[in-house]
Amino acid sequence: MKRKLLLGLAGAALCVGALAQKSAADGIAEYRKMLEDGNPAELFEAKGEELWKKKRGPKNASLEACDLGKGKGVVKGAFVELPRYFADTDSMQDLESRLVTCMEVLQGYKETDITEDRWGKNELGDVEAMATWIAGQSRGMRFNLPQNHAQEREYYALGKKAFFFRGGTHDFSCASCHGEDGKRIRLQDLPDLTKNPGDGIGFAAWPAYRVGNGQMWGMQHRLNDCYRQQRFPYPGYISDVTIALATYMGVNAKGAESIAPALKR
After folding, report:
1. What is the dihedral of CA 215, 217, 223, 226, to 10 degrees?
2. What is the dihedral of CA 117, 122, 123, 126, to 10 degrees?
3. Other CB atoms closer than 10 Å to residue 57's CB: what's the count?
4. Contact 111/104 with Cβ under 8 angstroms?
5. How many CA atoms lie within 13 A of 225 on its CB side?
6. Which of 43, 122, 181, 197 could link 201 by a cystine bridge, Cβ 3.0 to 4.6 Å?
7. 217, 207 in Cβ contact below 8 A?
8. Is-catalytic flag, 226?
9. pLDDT tens digits, one per residue of 59-77
10. Of the listed 15, 66, 174, 226, which one is catalytic?
11. Neighbour count for residue 71 (Cβ, 10 Å)
12. pTM score, whole prediction
């Protein structure tokens, strides 16, 4: 009798724990839903659009002639096809690195003036604001990164290798958190990014506004923080490894609907 009672209590405790965990996750989802209508990302979108059209820099020019892969000045649909190969730079570029190139060529800025800045400050903050606005112009569209050029395929393979590479003081990799279904950290579900995790999840949700620290993060910033959590050295801004990782995740997200700019905890 005592054994049955103990087993019954243990089973009840497991059920209560599962219900509490589920309701906590549901609570976070409801919290995000409540904030969606007032997502502060809208402020960054407005700033980004203004910066795109404003004449600035040593050449006193706007970025309206910038080619993001769909032709000069075409913004709609560009985000869901990046990173991709660009012939004029003979390199793979994501949204942020392409914006830096356009700021150099069209406006006369130096790359180091932008990339050596601090997060969210001056020109680097401007890049993130423009990336937020540009991403918003493809909201609701589905990812379809090209894999036609040799460099596009090469970067996908490099990104996959980087995703599974283990190292650092804790022997972590990207796959440690995002390599299979059913993982979570605290109350946060961790999607499996080795495949298409679904609409608006993983790659399809960034740039995003981080409620916890009141900051707007693009994918470059997101990857930088992932490396921090792995106890790796920070990667260089718009470095090859970050663009390769974005290529790997972006290709895996083919067909997923973009909800960027999203809202995160």
Report:
1. 30
2. 130
3. 18
4. yes
5. 10
6. 197
7. yes
8. yes
9. 999 999 999 999 999 999 9
10. 226
11. 8
12. 0.85
